[in-house]
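Changelog note: in this version the structure field was regenerated for every chain. One regenerated record is shown below for reference.
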Amino acid sequence: MRVSMQNIMKLNDIIHETYAALSANKVRSGLTMLGIVIGISSVIAMVSIGTGASNTISSSIESLGSNLIQIMPGAQQRQGFGVSSGRGGAKTLTNEDAAAIAEQIMDVEAVDSQVSGRYQITAKGTNTNTSVTGVTSKYSQIRNIEIAEGSFISDTQNNSASRVAVLGPTTRDDLFGEGATNVVGQSIRVNSLEFKVIGITVAKGGSGFQNQDDMIYIPVKSAQRYLSGDQYLTTIAVQASSPDTMTQVQSDITALLLDRHKIRDATLVDFSVLNQSDILSSASSITSTLTYLLAAIGCISLLVGGIGIMNMMLTTVTERTKEIGLRKAIGARKNDISTQFLAEAVALTLVGGIIGIALGWLISFVVNLTGLVATSVSLVSVLIAFGVSALIGIIFGYYPARRAAGLNPIDALRYE
């Protein structure tokens, strides 16, 4: 009990002396902490923005559909971080390929043929430039599309290449006004051809890779006949029966198309098969790398702040040389002197770290309010930032504290 009381009294003395020493030069202490504040706030803000961007991209990819496998014309090449890029507008996929996949591949729930392009759309004196996608009736099932008004494209309308269209809510607003009603039954012109509106989709909050609210859907055979002018597809979308079967379905599709396209050398493949896991993995890899890069930039600020603390503590040791000599002369040990100066360095970084965490949180909140990125500050990043700030105080305060503890009391008392 006696030892514990002595430790508590000693701790109180250290805290009191640390406060007195730092408050004696408030401006200098504040400027020294500024580097730590900037560093910690940068790390918190950058990591939250990176995490938020990663979550937004993942949500956008998952909103494209469930258990989704996409086949696109033209082989793709791997580039840095696993990102893939196509070989231009190749035309190698046909309606017959999509039909063969639906008929011959096991564990397939639905297959959709697509033809996409951007066109100028007009209606009642207004116009917009948006994506027009030719689809089958399976599209709504594969992409989780819900209809707010009217109906989606049917097999009958597709087989007869009807000139009908389903609008996304953003496209409806652009053509008929914000929240317009009774749009179903009205006409729009796509590439100067008249299409009748048969439905409006439910808003999905489109963002990221593809805004599904700013689109027009028409029958795929209508798109081939009236817009692209040929029988080729830009995408075949396949919904696997479960996440566990996606890899096997992907392999079976590859083997089937290689056989149908009479390609024996797999390196000469003229199509690409990607599943959602591949896309999520690539996107996650990119965003993680960017997050690490942003955090590294913040760490450079922390390093500069740590050097600033070491510089201030060395100056303080020089200014208080006589005080150190006096304390040693009346019995203070080396450990007492080094503990005091180390406590001052750690106090500077801890206070700077707390202010930095609050500032980083505020920056993250402001960025969130802009609506550009839904930022996310994790408890782990806050704890790491707090731990790093304390660690910087110990690392950069160790040398000045050791130098103060090593002073000869007689030389220190004679110091001018």
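Spot check on this record: The two ends are 43 Å apart (CA to CA). DSSP finds 13 helices and twelve strands in the chain.
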